[in-house]
Amino acid sequence: MTDHTPTPAACFDTLPLDAKLLRAVADQGYATMTPIQAKAIPIVLSGRDVMGAAQTGTGKTAAFSIPLLQRMLQHENSSASPARHPVRALVLAPTRELADQVANNVKAYAKHSQLRVACVFGGIDIKPQMEELRRGVEVLIATPGRLLDHIEAKTAALHQVEYVVLDEADRMLDIGFLPDLQRILSYLPKQRQTLLFSATFSTEIKRLAQSYLQDPELVEVARPNATASTVEQRFFSVEDDDKRRAVQYLLRERGITQSIVFVNSKLGAARLARSFERDGLKTAALHGDKSQDERLKSLEAFKRGEVELLVATDVAARGLDIADLPAVFNFDVPFNAEDYVHRIGRTGRAGASGLAFTLVTKSDARLVGDIEKLIKRKLDLEALELEDDRPRRPRSDWERGREEPGRGESRGERGADEGRRAAGPRYAPQAPRDPFFDKPYVAPERTEQPAWEAAPAPTAAPRGATGNIRPKKKVAALFGAKQTAPAAES
DNA sequence: AAAAAAC
């Protein structure tokens, strides 16, 4: 008896796809389908509505855009009015960056066809978008607000839409886009194919699907709340004041060339980015208080490898696809456990391995408990013992402001901590001793084998060797007995 | 506690 060998992944060229699409897929370097593609593409080709649960980074965009393009190509010549080109496919996404990214993917798949793909979102001049729409667009990717602007300005005619995709639908509901979605969908023909993708199937999502999808087929590849097994998740107990140093320590310790540092507030992101920049790290910020132009520039610089750290709010948590991103930091524990899953989903994409480091302070105990419940895993906290041999700049006024008496609860603890710090001048400016801080930042080379894979393997993490990371403790042990009873109270 | 989106 032969034991069952894994079934070989199906290739795109086994699908009944137009040669133009197959060529575009091959141009992208894809041969085999991901699980969601293998499941969803035939269903979409059959014309059925789809309700898809797929983690980001699973090839979701290709899973819906390739079969939709195929269906559009099949009917390319049957267009009633060849002179005019109404929007035939509409894709809605929750954030501007996501819309832009989806559009770039769809454009790549459509590049050998005559189908025109455009993207509209807010924060940038509407006039070029109007001009592009006026010239004619078959596939439109949009964020809801700006699309409504175009509808009102009568620059987007949606009365001929045949295909609709609601991407990251749960996020769109979170943001409060439901009224906008309802309005947009009311402009569309009832006779259409609708695809809905969501990380979770909450009651709200189910209700949305019930209203706007017809007899949808459920496509589920990974448990919606599962985290990629290829991501090494570590939780470090730190104090607020040590977070920045902890990040820099871990970057060095694990040889991380690039990472996203997630924070909970826009202001926090701006400040932290400035601090890292002052520390000599090539840093960019990405949050909703930046102009759209700056946001796109930050993201592009990061994707090109010119920027080492991207300090971001949850605007970057979902869906963004950054190739070979070795690590993600949760500088702040996210308020919603679900966002934790999305944040760490930026790394370890497409089967690559990744690191997800979360910095936990005492006040985060409850949030960590929420994460434990969501990912159904017991989490261990590790203590970082940061040596005080790092060159430090004087703290900013803001940082000093944080030490006002009466803020935070860790006054007592801090006394002992200050004693330890007294061993070395913590903030005294001095010449950098560490080559890490000396050498100018060099953009990491994009190679087949990412540089970080050469870094110490997860199991060979030099914790013991350096003695800088103390053994793991149960969350409960660090935060008191409250955490031991995960059962919902009251 | 906050973030995301239209002006």
Automatic annotation (TrEMBL):
Motif range (Q motif): 10-38
Compositional bias per record (Low complexity), positions renumbered to this chain: 450-465
Location of the DEAD-box RNA helicase Q domain: 10-38
Keyword set includes Hydrolase: yes
Residues covered by the Helicase ATP-binding domain: 41-219
InterPro entries listed in its UniProt record: DEAD/DEAH_box_helicase_dom, DEAD/DEAH_RhlB, DEAD_box_RNA_helicase, Helicase_ATP-bd, Helicase_C-like, P-loop_NTPase, RNA-helicase_DEAD-box_CS, RNA_helicase_DEAD_Q_motif
GO MF terms held by the record: helicase activity; hydrolase activity
Region (Disordered): 389-472
EC number(s) stated in the UniProt entry for this protein: 3.6.4.-
Compositionally biased region (Basic and acidic residues): 389-421
Domain of life: Bacteria
Keyword Hydrolase in annotation: yes
Chain ranges of the Helicase C-terminal domain: 230-392
Pfam family, one: Helicase_C
Keywords: ATP-binding, Helicase, Hydrolase, Nucleotide-binding
Family: Belongs to the DEAD box helicase family.
Protein name per Swiss-Prot or TrEMBL: DEAD/DEAH box helicase
The organism of origin for this protein: Roseateles rivi
